[in-house]
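Suppose you are handed a protein chain with no further information: no name, no annotation, nothing but its sequence. What can you learn? This example shows the usual starting point.
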Amino acid sequence: MKKGKLKDMLSYGVGAVGLDLSYGLFYSYLAKYLTDILHLNKKFLLFLTPVARIWDGFNDPMMGTIVDNTKTKMGKYRPWILIGSCCNAVVLSLLFSNPGFELGGIPLYIYVAVLYVGWGMTNTMADIPYWSMVPSFTSDPKERGLIATVARTFSGLGQGIISILTPVMLPMLSEATYNGEKIADARGYSLWAIICACALVGFSCLSVANTKEKHIVTPKEKFTFKQMFNIAKNNDQLLVFMLFAMLSNAGWYMISGVGVYFFDVVAGDPAKQSTFNIIGAVGSVLGLGVVPALTKFMSRRRCYQVSLSLAIFGFATMGICVKAFGSYMAMNFCYLVASIGVASMFVSQTVFLADIVDYGEIKMGFRSESITFSMKGFLQKMAYTIQTIILFSGLEISKYNENLHAQNSAEVKSAISFMMLVAPIILIALSLIIYTWKFKLHGKYMEEITAKINEKRAELKS
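A reasonable first move is to predict its three-dimensional structure. Written in structure tokens, the prediction is:
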């Protein structure tokens, strides 16, 4: 590989670290913060999450449209990555910080609701243009796969920082104690969120400063909101992708979102989560090499099916280790297998979106990277919505008490165990069935689409 290409890929990948620091903290620890620190009503949280997603259904494609029509000296992607990251950093800090005058009652609920929606909007401002750059680098499927792998490697690093360090940093930065040991409190959450916010801005600046936009296809016609919704409606493979990716992502989010409750209430030792997450991070790193390795011996379709099957097997054996043998150490190594499957799943999904962009151009006659990639952010938020609905419903029905920790009832422990060990298997298995049954961008059909795209590029150059 040429030195210049490697530098470009590494510079691009750095930006994913900061984005996933914010992303990971929001999706993995916000629920625990809202229930245990702010003591918000779980019924309110069940209402807030779907409402925010309804707005995202309009906001995310709107942002994709704005990016597609952006023309600046910096390009159309990098300005929004920078603006979105800075805005998201501010909102993240405020969301995990009850103001100095200690809001309570209705003002606190309004404050949380506004910032909750605001986080989604500002994350969209940075996330859509960032991932939309993938197809602009090259039209070669193998090179796209490599770029996606590099970006996902850095993305995994950001997630790893959150999953490994957060259980350690929260008590360290906090002042509260329980049974003589330091536990997470409002101060710890606030300081850690500010640290992550600063890192988000720093990594985004590094990426923007050292990445050049290439092979940008400017829309021949100005996009309208009507066209925006037509893209989402008429690209059948985009809709199929949205469904199976949403389900598989929701399965993964169940582990990251419920894990903080699982180790506190069921395992009775929040510190065990750090070891669990370290093993998961190792699996995520190993998983990034699965797609490039397996595609030498099998099709991308088969590779993706193997990835999901690994995840299902890993999660299933986790439950067996805990319930049949009571071994959390064995559960950790089963999580290693599941994490390998999940990491390779995410790499493939990024490549799928690039293929869907090409498919949409051939089918509809015009190209739209940003609007198509805006669906990635939206499906992730919808996946998080599925997770939070299951999580908050389970906590509410089982009568979870945030003040009892491991002293919660057997019903609470059973509900949390089900959400941690069984729900992910069901969601990912459904995703595998839908992918196998309905997704057709593979094999000779995808090769024909790629050939047509290359022909169009050659005509434009001549």
